[in-house]
Every structure is written in C-alpha cells, then in structure tokens.
C-alpha cells in the first residue's frame, strides 16, 4: 500500500515574512517610528509656533470674523496637513527600496532640523540672515549624523511625537483664543436708568495707534493747519489733554476702555471674557449699532455681526501662511498679527458710492471717495435720528499701520517688510504715519459733517479718542515696554474729546484722565447706572488727587509713571530742496528703483499713486549721502542713503504731495546731493 503524498506548505515570498515573523514586525515598527519622528519635528517647526502665536492672538480671528468651525478647521489643517505631506514623501520612498527610504528619511530629518535650528537660533543668538542659515545647516547635519549613529535621538523624537497633541490641547483649552473657539455666556447684566435721566444719542469713534503728540503744534494745541477737523472738534468739546491709554495692545486697551477696569488677565477681547461692558450695560435702554474691528465685546443678543470681504477660511489660510513665513524665516520679525490688519475700502467692499463727493479741495478726484474705509461708510450711514436712544460705536483702525494713505486720501503701495526702525527708517515710518493721520483728519471732518446734516450733532454725546499711541523713537519704535521706557509721551498719551449734548464751546481739562474713565464718563452723561464696580472715575466727579499713570504691557502687571501733558517732538524740517524745480542734467551714476514702471502709466483718477519710492544704490555711494527724489521736475523728498535692510533697500522716500503727479507718463528722477549742494542725476533701472 503506497504511502500518501505529504502536504507541503507553499513557499513564503521572500519580500514578505509570514505574520508574526520578527523581520516583518520590525519593518513596520521601524516605519511607524520614522513617521513619529517626522510628526515630532513638524510639530516643533510648524504646529507649535503657529498655535502659540495664534493662541495669544484671538484678535486675529475676531478681525477676520472667523466662527468656531472655521477656527477648528484651520487648526486641523495646521496640525495635520504639514505632517501628512512630509510623511507621505517618506512613505513613497519605500517603493524604491530600504536604502532609498533610509536616505530620504535622513534628508527629511535634516531639513526639519535646519528649520528648527533657524527658529532656535533667532531666539538664542544674535545671528540673522545668511550667517544664521549656515549655522542652522551645520546644526542640521550634526543632528542627522547623530540620528544615524545613535538610537537615543530617535527615541527622544518618538516620545516628542506627543507634542502636537499637547500643543492642540493648550490652544483649544488654555490659550486666550480658546474663548473665541468655545465661547461661554452671552454678556452681563444691563445697566439701569439714573432716576429720570434723559438718554441722549451716543456717538463713539475709537481710533487706533494715534499719539496725542502727533496732533500738537509747537504751542501745545492742535495744529489746525495740518489737522483742521481735529481742531474743529476740539473747539466745540471738552479736550482731556492729559489722557492716557492703559496698554499698547488693543486687545487689552479697548476692553479696559469699555469695561472701566484695568487689564487683569490675558484673555480674549470677547464678550464671554468681558461680560460686563458698555454694550451689555447700555443694551437694556439703548439700541446698539456697533462696528468692532479686533474685538467682539458686543454679544450676539445685542449686536448683529457685520460682514466684510476679509473673512472666510481662505483668508485665514492665506494670513496663517504669511505668519509661518515670518515665524520660520532667518531674519528678524516681530510677530504681531495686528501689524497686518487693514481697513478694506468701500470700493473693495462693493458699497454703493452714493454719498456726495467731499467739497474739501484736497480731494481732487471723485474716485478718492471709494478709498474711504468700508466700515466707516457703514458707520456714517447709520448716523440718523431714531425713536429710541442709540449707541453708535466704531473702532476704526486708523491711522494704524499698515500706512497706505496720503493726506488727500490717495493710496499708495509699499513692501510689507519695509523696516520701521533703524537709521532713516524710523523717520520714514513717522512721515507715513503723519500722512495717514492727515487722511484720518478728513474722516473726522466727514463725521462732523454727517452729524450736522442729520441733526444729531447738537443732541448727541460725541466721543472721539484712540486706544493707544506709538513711538517713533529710533531703537524704541512700537508700543511695548521698550517704547514706554524711552518715549512714554508717544505711546501712552492719546487725544480724547468729549462733546456733551448741546455743548457749543470748547474747553481744555488737564485732569489725570486714564482710559478706564471713559465708560464711567459716558454712562454718567447718558444717564446709565453701571451694575458693576469700575476702576475708572467719571469726569463729572472730582479729579484724581494722584497724578500717577498706569500702563499694562502685561495684564495684572502695572507700570507707573508720572503724569503731565507731553511736549511734542519737533516736526521733521523739510529740506530746502523740497518743492524746487530741477533740470535733468548729465548722468553721473546709477540707482535701482522698484516699480519704476508705475510712473509710465500713472492715473490719479484711480485714487492710487506710486507715492512711495524705494530702491538701491551702488556700494560706492556711502551711507548718509542725500538723495533728492523728483517727479516731473519738482523735488518731492530728500532722504539719506542707509545701510541695506534685509530686502536690500538702501533708500525710500514718501512723496506726500499728490499734486506732483499727473495722468499719463510721469518722469521720476533720483539725484545725488553733493556736499556743496550740486545735484548729480542717477540713471534708473
């Protein structure tokens, strides 16, 4: 009897060990480990810095009117997509074999190590630019070699893969932005009437980043020649000349103004964090028409949320991408999302330009009316008498940077990375600020005209002020503690005008006004009893005996300094050549000018002019050399040559007088000013 044939298992493919084999398990465990290493580094390079900045900047989401769903989707994209893209590149390399996979993984780690080294180097070393990149590449090479030779770096990275989850949890549950993502509550208790008080209409216009000293002439009064409408306002209201904001950061400063309380915690400027504010206090007796910019203090039960073209997930992704470039770049960058906030114009918003053309002779083109900020147009349209008392509120980001307006209202383009500090650049920043302040003065005039035209002017309590100022002191430009220490008079002191109903004549009150006094004063005049205690004091009460000022660079940590109306810094003295005619002489050098083509087809009727000129000159022209910039044969600015900024620019000039330009081809000349005053024309490219 024959023996049965033995049953033999089919051979196992050599490239796939059977389940449970050590080689198969080790291969997939190794791949999982590689992906965890990638996740850890991408989390440190992308997720953590972005969520850190955005978590501390709830105003970014409030400005763009993002709802919780959009924020959560953006956070998911930030947390998942970069990791997924890099991980997919590594996974695809497996198709080329284990050697290619190992080389690809090492290369990806090296790139991520380099990106991480750039960020760390910016914080712990003075290196910037190319030197920092070179050091980062060396550090990345060392990190990649260490990862290849030893197991410890890989183990550390795999443990660090839990980081992105922790960063996400901190953002959603602990950061100031968490209140915007997961709001709780709907505002505080409404105020009550003070006896039989009459409740007048209230019109509040809060400007942004406006130092008092920018408005002052040498005699300490409003410079009526430069700012006629601010002077007009001061002539019919009470000017609290010794008025100071309490913080250089709007998300702290504005809530203090509208709650009457000093900043105590670093929280979102949101109604869930500040339930007791002017909108909730007035909401029981007043209709509310509020246009906020980077706060959301008015709860949905009191205010409809306005819409703007600058909202939606696409805008959030675009601006977050720009933010990543600033965070991860090798050059210096003060990461402040607020620096990018810009008021969309009425033309951009598609508003009907039915308002009459201003009669102001500065406004030479009808189209300039389209440059009016869209939210300001909406604010003006709402200034009409109503049967119920109404609070009209607008926080307008003017003359806040980015500076883009000439005094006439014409707009101009400028590089986003143009420096605001350093030799020559701080002076240019102040000139651009003053030009935009000139345009802001026009908006004040439009407000007063509209109030008179609608009959609200005499009836209403009108308040015009700003949340904080800004320093243009070289080496201390900005609004933080360095600026406060060097130039408190520019950062803290702000214009504050209060015109009470039926007030006809102006007066100056130099009491120690701090912006926590704003709400108690407005409530007192409006006949509203506030249902919560405040730190401020109504102007109808006796002035403070103490002259001390309080400023909060960080909530809960006040810095004090003495009061007193500051002396304005001297205005820049125009060079004698400005305004003079020049003839085009022989070429004696060269210069590179950006956007030179804009001068060949300028059209003032569009409301946009090439009024900012910037570029580079050869190294043989030393720093400090003066350059005269002329349009159509008339010099509009004289500026110095300065050390090259990170963008390679060695000069920039603002041509603030739009009468230099005409329709069609305009001739631009850049001339080197010799020590003896002679001019040498530079060939432009």
TrEMBL record:
Signal peptide: none annotated. SUPFAM superfamilies: Alkaline phosphatase-like. It comes from the Bacteria. It holds the Pfam family Sulfatase. The chain crosses the membrane at residues 71-90, 102-121, 127-145, 157-174. InterPro entries: Alkaline_phosphatase_core_sf, GAG_Ulvan_Degrading_Sulfatases, Sulfatase_N. Keywords: Membrane, Transmembrane, Transmembrane helix. Residues 227-528 form the Sulfatase N-terminal domain. Residues 1-26, 328-366 are annotated as: Disordered. The keyword Isomerase does not apply. The keyword Electron transport does not apply. This is Arylsulfatase A-like enzyme. The lineage of its organism: Bacteria, Bacillati, Actinomycetota, Actinomycetes, Micromonosporales.
